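Appendix B. Extra example for self-study. Work through it before the problem class; the solution is given directly after the inputs so you can check yourself.
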Amino acid sequence: MSDSTATANGVETEVHHEHPSYQRHHFETVAQQFDATNFAMWLFLLTEIMFFGGLFTAYLILRNWYYPAFVEGSHQLSIFWGTANTTVLIISSFTMAMSVWNAQMRRKGGLLLCLVLTFILGLVFLGIKGIEWHEKWVKYHVPGLHYSDQSFRNPASDPEVYAEYHDKSLAPDMASKVEQYFFLYFAMTGMHALHMVIGIAILGFMIVRAKTGAYTSGHYTFVENFGLYWHFVDIIWIFLFPLLYLISRHQ
Amino acid sequence: MNNANNSSEHEQHIVSPKIYVVILLALLALTATTVAASYVEMYVFNAVVALAIAVLKMILVVLFFMHIKYSTKLTKLTVISGVFIFLGLISMTLADYVSRAWGRW
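Solution. Structure tokens for the complete assembly:
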């Protein structure tokens, strides 16, 4: 507060030495300001690890308890779409990393291009996720809302999946546990998708700001820290993909 | 440690695009590997291999895309402590579940 008063009175030039306009007065140097915001961003990401960690732990324990149900549940997922989405997300992490580089090098055109590519790849990811979720709806695999355990009590009634995996019929009590697999599937991919939606919204905001040259004048902290968020969301998917899609192919 | 605390001016390490491309290719190769490995019958090791590859991918992303390799010791310590606490909480939860219903896990 006293700082801004001092500035208004023109005393500022006596008190402070020269520094870039984006350096806040309570920081000694730009580097210190960068490190402090970077540190804060990492603390936020740690809370996110704990948040997703609860879901991962629930998955670990329930998969252990109801193993046959979780195996047959995961046979309903498409490895093709899962692999495609993993690829899309990894490439979007790369374009995000390149956004940071372009901001550091003060290349406005390159920054805009990379941000727009990241934005589009994020939307492609959600689109593919939408295709997969839609399939779950059509097959009555949305727990609590549009659900039937027909495919697990009588796997032959689901010819496509049956042709690939030849699953055995589950006893009614175990078949009913597949719903828990789908509950966790929707909770985990849904929470991940929510993070993607938030990220895409912030990317839209950044594209508008980048057009005015906001990040290419040497102050790229926002791009760097948003990049951390985006890569974090990528890492969550890097674990969701094998756990939900891959590890239960064989019984 | 390449940041020898010379607080002269805004010395943020700039990671070159070459490194980003190499990491991108490594991540794509590891994705292909983990998908291919899932088609091979390895019993309990299917999950072990898949998780090991996921951890490797995470390390690549954290070190290079998230610049931890070039960051301050404070940030490095923050990341390590986060992973440590996460693993600690998971193992304590599992210890509880395993020991309460002994033999029925």
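Self-check: The radius of gyration of chain A is 24 Å. If your reasoning did not lead you there, revisit section 3.
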